[in-house]
Records
---
Amino acid sequence: MLFAGIDVGSQSTACVLWDGKTIRGFAVLPSGVNPGERAREALKQALETAGLPERDCFIVATGYGRYQVEGAQLVVSEITCQARGVAYFFPQARTVIDIGGQDSKVIRLGEGGRVLDFVMNDKCAAGTGRFLELMAQVLEIKLEDYGTLFARAREPLTLSQTCAVFAESELIGYIAQGKRKEDLVRAVAASVAERVKALGERLGIVPPLVVTGGVAKNQAVLKLLEERTGCAVLVPPEPLLTAGLGACLVAAKKTSPETTA
């Protein structure tokens, strides 16, 4: 049986194809304004990329837009799916920090990806990928520039405001003072790392620590997270796919207890 795990996030929609033993294909697309349509497109693209014919798949949906996925035979929370997907790559993982476009989550794991507890921030853009995007616009840089500019930072500036709107004003104030762009990039990344660390401290961050979501590709944030938590950060091969893969694993377990998932 072929499983299609579709994770409809606020910023991106990922589809993972799993045949019960291995990942056969995947696709990641911007979510846009029609989650259901984008989910169909992601499934079609994943099948085409894998060279598989369009056929019946066991579709399992997760993510904030999971109820918009037409034809889903199973719907599972993103917390459960993220945990299972991370455990597939890192069986010994005990903490997951998932930093998405509109929210951030910290999940404590037990054996086999069992969720012990979790906490999330979905009330403010601070500490999310959206915050990094907004600040990149102010700094007139691309998201992929964060790592390079961060490596050249010298002055440890601080964004003290906890609100994304006020933090933007604070950043503009630094620009008016003539502060270097490299140091401003560091301040932005440090703000995200600090917010996420504070969120994690409500549960306790226990290593091994895995970071997922689009922000897991931001080397500046990862480096600062390591500094602030004192934990080496592990990142899956493709950090946008863990929830979709986890959805497949949950479905495989439910439909066939003997599966390797």
Note: The mean pLDDT is 94.
---
Amino acid sequence: MIEKAKVLIVESSGPQDFYSEELDGPLIYNLTKLLSINARLVYAVDEKHFKKAVARAAKLQCNVLHVSCHGREEGISLTDDTLIDWPDFVQIFTDNRYSPKALVMSSCWGAVDEIADEFEKVRFKPDIIFGATDDRCYNEYAVAWTILYNVFSQEGVDRDVAREALRAIYVTAHKNFRYLRWHDGKKEYVQFPGDSRKYEIIEKSKGSKKKVSTASR
């Protein structure tokens, strides 16, 4: 039996995104309605409401959490420009005992090694993490998630389906999208597309925290 998607979409993009109507959350919400996917959309403009959103996803037992916001290598940035670093981000899942089947990170650097490294330290974690390993634009996310949710709607939410979706995203949207899946035997996240290393090698800026431009996530 396929596991149907039950999605909570959390929108916390920057003010410029609201002004220019480049909001991933409402776009994905309308897409899920067209695909008859059970989904809800909430706006979380600050840390308080972001934590409430994750708590709501846990309470509703949503197997997909979709986070739309800006991102940095150190973590995510909310509408009010609050930075939640990866350790604090992961702690929110621990506090709510929440382990979604899929975490869709619609933010720049949403699937970097650091998020996986932090989730590896805790009990409650997503089985699959979708995202990009660098700075992507709004249109690329729109294409990627349209592919992903179309596949989810037809085949359910699992690892084989995730690989199928990622192959199409890799060809159609951009090669810097990937998914990380939890490996029970290795007790760590492994990546797809895979290579001989644990993760893709990503250059990181040293000693600086970059702010994402309004043209990207």
Note: The longest strand covers residues 64-72.
---
Amino acid sequence: MRKRRPILIVTLGGTVEAIDSVRVLTNLSRGGLGRVIVEKALARGLYVHALVSVLATPPAPHERLTIERFTSARDLGAKLRAQIIRDDAAAVTVAMAAAVSDYRPERASGGKISSAPTTRLLRLVRNPKLVDAIHRWRPDARLISFKLVGPKVSNTELLAKAARQRERTRSVAVVANRWPSATEHRAWLVTAETSRVLRGRDAIATAVVDLAQQATPATSARGQNQKRPAS
């Protein structure tokens, strides 16, 4: 049996939802912030499992790092669940930095859709919210979730949305930002006690790793005594 130890799971990059055999729905995320989180966590001595989009550049190899690739939101969910419920993890912290598609095509064509018609109707269905499933899979997991909003959302509304997400998902913190400031890496860190502005990838990643290191042995012991649901 492998030694039980705390683990940080970092998801990074954008999900890829198939339209047909050659076309996909995706987003602009390429996992830059997630890679910095991984690097800083490894520098602190943490064990990390990185779930990396097939479109993102993976972190550099490291003896305390394992890497797994994902495609769609459902693929990410299955792989994330498998890591969260693993018995050799004394404690689990999840940093959900991946950009997960809210929707996917209702059906993906097995071949290439013809380009002859001048218009096409693509029906989308909602993907499950993975952040809402974390504590069903492992009640003692520590979750750091992320919230991205549009450019017209005010700071007050952004903080309110982040607070609601924190309560709904039982996140220890929410990293909240708006587009396009997400590309400039300016975000709010919202916890139960406070909210503060973080500027730059390094500051955001440092705050996330600080939270990950708060997974104490006492927390791990409590986690060992909790029964984890099958789904």
Note: The mean pLDDT is 90.
---
Amino acid sequence: MILYHLDKWKYKEVWPPEGSLFADGRWNKPGQWVIYASPTISLAKLEILANESNLPVKRVCMTIEIAEKVDVFEVTQKDLPANWMEKPSPGSLIDYTKQFIESGSILMQVPSAQSYREQNYLINVRHPEFQKKVRLLDVSAEPFDIRLK
């Protein structure tokens, strides 16, 4: 499986990304070391645009390969509270990430709040087989078209 993670240019040499160690997100609290990733670059961009007030500049795209046989912890829209897409998101979403980490899976599949019929993934960086099952394939500039904002 190939996934994409967008980050600020200044973090282009940081692997694995460390943002979730210091900041909370819809699915994590600070300290839960996960990488947010999308199956397409366009969905990854949509996720960034939804969380930025200005057009992002100097972004980097990390192309990530996940080994074929990994356990995936799946969260479906039916599992979630009705207000799961709101901002700020309900704190109960973090419970899914806690369960995911405790499950021993490397990947958690979640619905995208920007396109709920599509999926995003969280990668468990602290998983004991992370180095064997997750590989950084490429890091490259990923510009945003100025017409997007």
Note: The helical segments are 19-22, 41-50, 93-103, 130-133.
